[in-house]
Amino acid sequence: MRSTLIFATAVAAVLALSACGEKPQDKMGIRSDQPAQAGTGVAAFTEPGWKAGDHASWSNHLKARANYGMNDHQRAPK
Fold this sequence. Notes:
Blueprint: H1 2-18, H2 55-67, H3 72-75
C-alpha cells in the first residue's frame, strides 16, 4: 500500500513538473519572399498616393519619417 502511494506521488510529481516545461522558441516571423516596398496588399496599411513596389518613394518616405519626427530614438525621454 505504501509503495503504491509513493509511486503515485512520484508519477504525479513528474506530470506536474513536465507541465512546467519551456515552450519551443522556433522562428515564426513573417515568411515572405517579397521585398518590404512591395507592400502588404491591404489598403488600410497603405499611404494614399503610394504604389506598391515603388522603391524610390518607399525609401523617400522612410527618410522623411526619420527626419520629421517619426524617429522613436530621438523622441524618447532621456
